């Protein structure tokens, strides 16, 4: 055991704790009050980013609901290191933004390609003029809509007449007027925005920064709203509500997500989640695994946790679509969504195909420090929202992940895949166990109700590598690259905060199978 594996759980348990967050927030508020400052919210807008096109539509409502001073900045696209598969990221962003727009009553239609560069530059100049004249909030939504509409024509967009609102102080209406009104170059503004974003610790557009914390897109605005409400910044009638409420319905379908060993050591509880669900009368969970390279299965490709003898589960599952669940043992978002995926699948009677992949960093894709930090802090914040134990982590990169993956086929063949995966995720992301050591991995294995002596022998099997590679290729074929991702009934999506799409796809499938409209 190295010094790193000894210290990481101690350091992370403090850095990711609600106590540290509360302390940092209290210090920031004391500084704000001492300096007599307003509640300053920085917004970073990337001109050709679909998520920014959504986020800017939320600005007026945010200012109407809270006593804040909004500071908009223009920024460039993320660096290559933060966007390792840029083509898929860009294409998926458009598709995902269209889905979010429909869900939240916003405006965005995926045109199937990015706007022309000349249109992006013209829109950027118009947005810069709007910043300089204090009307970004009013102008940005119309300018963004004009930009995306320009993808169907070679001409550059012009700001719609009156997009500057009722202030009437010379809003620029054409690209040339935007240049004149802006008074400074777009390149300079982008460089300044990029530098500020980097100094404050982020890498994406469509993001909000307030007093030491980042909030990405409309998906995380509810966290910012709750914080502003706690500080008394909400205007009359706002307290207790948020504009873009998080999806908690999956959590409420069963209390399994909240039960998963919450406050219980890994050896007592997390490995018994499936048994508790079955005892409560829930349907058994059927897990599927590619068995072509798995000698442990003896040709079987599925395993049911807690099978009910004579229940006719095979027939029932045959009419229920399978959830393809792409995950990595090193992904904190995979860790906090896994119990919810299993809970949803159990409640809906849907099989889950376990599509594990190697972490990006183990596939030769670098992850910048700012990205790692934001993901860790955001995952902790989301874990608290969904009441998933998280924070005392021991980064399983490298050998711990390889050992963990090697035992998935072993656990699956014994009908303990669910218990093993939950025990592993809880062990390394909440208990601080070192899965690279025999002591740490043994605790995980035995918590899952598996024999350590047999598991130790199974570590020598390298068949999981071929399965992981096939899963990676299947993920890329869906136009996705990151985890957690899902595919079910013709719907594919990425992110632990997109489980509602999986639930809705399952709901649409049922009436379609019955021939209903």
Description:
This protein folds into two domains: 38-230, 3-Layer(aba) Sandwich (Glutaredoxin); 249-513, Glutaredoxin (3-Layer(aba) Sandwich). It has helices at residues 3-15, 18-35, 50-55, 59-65, 86-104, 117-132, 136-149, 175-182, 186-200, 221-230, 249-253, 256-259, 273-279, 313-318, 332-348, 369-386, 399-406, 408-413, 417-429, 438-447, 452-458, 463-477, 499-513; strands at 39-46, 68-75, 207-210, 213-216, 285-288, 302-305, 323-327, 352-356, 485-488, 491-494. The longest helix is centred in the first third of the chain and has 19 residues, at 86-104. A six-stranded mixed beta sheet has the order 6-5-8-7-9-10. With 517 residues, it is α/β, with parallel strands linked by helices.
Mean pLDDT figure: 85
Major sheet size, sense and barrel closure: 6 strands, mixed
Number of domains: 2
Question: Shape from CA axes?
Answer: globular
Rg from Cα: 24 Å
Q: What's the tally of helices?
A: 23
Known CATH architecture of the largest domain: 3-Layer(aba) Sandwich
End-to-end distance: 60 Å
Q: What topology, given as strand order, has the largest sheet? A: 6-5-8-7-9-10
CATH fold call of the largest domain: Glutaredoxin
- Classify the secondary structure makeup into a structural class: alpha/beta
The residue fraction in helices comes out at: 40-55%
């Amino acid at each position: 055991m190295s010094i790193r594996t000894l210290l990481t759980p101690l350091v992370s348990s403090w850095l990711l704790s609600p106590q540290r967050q509360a302390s940092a927030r209290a210090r920031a508020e004391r500084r704000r009050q001492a300096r007599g400052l307003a509640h300053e919210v920085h917004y970073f807008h990337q001109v050709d980013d679909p998520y920014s096109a959504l986020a800017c539509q939320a600005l007026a409502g945010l200012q109407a609901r809270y006593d804040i001073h909004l500071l908009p900045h223009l920024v460039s696209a993320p660096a290559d290191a933060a966007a390792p598969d840029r083509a898929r990221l860009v294409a998926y962003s458009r598709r995902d933004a269209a889905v979010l727009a429909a869900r939240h009553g916003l405006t965005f239609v995926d045109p199937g390609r990015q706007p022309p560069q000349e249109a992006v530059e013209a829109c950027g100049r118009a947005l810069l003029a709007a910043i300089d004249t204090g009307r970004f909030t009013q102008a940005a939504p119309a300018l963004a809509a004009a930009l995306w509409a320009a993808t169907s024509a070679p001409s550059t967009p012009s700001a719609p007449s009156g997009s500057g609102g009722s202030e009437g102080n010379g809003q620029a209406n054409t690209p040339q007027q935007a240049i004149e009104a802006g008074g400074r170059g777009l390149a300079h503004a982008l460089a300044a925005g990029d530098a500020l974003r980097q100094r404050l610790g982020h890498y994406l557009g469509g993001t909000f920064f307030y007093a030491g914390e980042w909030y990405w897109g409309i998906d995380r605005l509810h966290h910012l709203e709750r914080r502003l409400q706690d500080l008394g910044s909400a205007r009359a009638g706002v307290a207790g509500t948020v504009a873009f409420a998080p999806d908690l319905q999956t959590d409420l379908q069963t209390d399994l997500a909240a039960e998963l060993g919450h406050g219980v050591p890994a050896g007592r509880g997390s490995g018994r989640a499936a048994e508790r669900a079955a005892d409560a009368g829930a349907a058994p969970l059927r897990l599927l695994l590619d068995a072509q390279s798995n000698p442990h299965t003896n040709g079987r490709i599925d395993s049911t946790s807690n099978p009910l003898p004579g229940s006719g589960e095979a027939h029932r599952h045959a009419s229920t679509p399978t959830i393809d669940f792409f995950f990595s043992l090193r992904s904190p978002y995979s860790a906090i969504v896994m119990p919810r995926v299993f809970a949803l699948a159990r409640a809906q009677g849907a099989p889950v195909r376990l599509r594990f992949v190697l972490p990006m960093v183990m596939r030769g894709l670098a992850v910048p420090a700012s990205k790692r930090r934001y993901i860790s802090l955001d995952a902790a914040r989301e874990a608290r929202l969904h009441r998933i134990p998280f924070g005392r982590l021991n980064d399983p990169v490298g050998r711990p992940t390889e050992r963990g993956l090697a035992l998935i086929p072993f656990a699956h063949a014994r009908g303990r895949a669910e218990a093993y995966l939950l025990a592993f995720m809880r062990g390394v992301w909440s208990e601080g166990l070192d899965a690279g050591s025999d002591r740490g991995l043994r605790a995980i294995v035995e918590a899952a109700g598996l024999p350590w002596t047999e598991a130790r022998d199974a570590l020598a099997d390298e068949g999981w590598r071929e399965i992981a590679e096939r899963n990676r290729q299947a993920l890329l074929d869906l136009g996705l690259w990151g985890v957690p991702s899902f595919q079910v009934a013709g719907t594919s999506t990425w992110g632990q905060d997109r489980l509602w799409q999986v639930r809705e796809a399952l709901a649409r499938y049922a009436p379609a199978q019955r021939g209903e409209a």
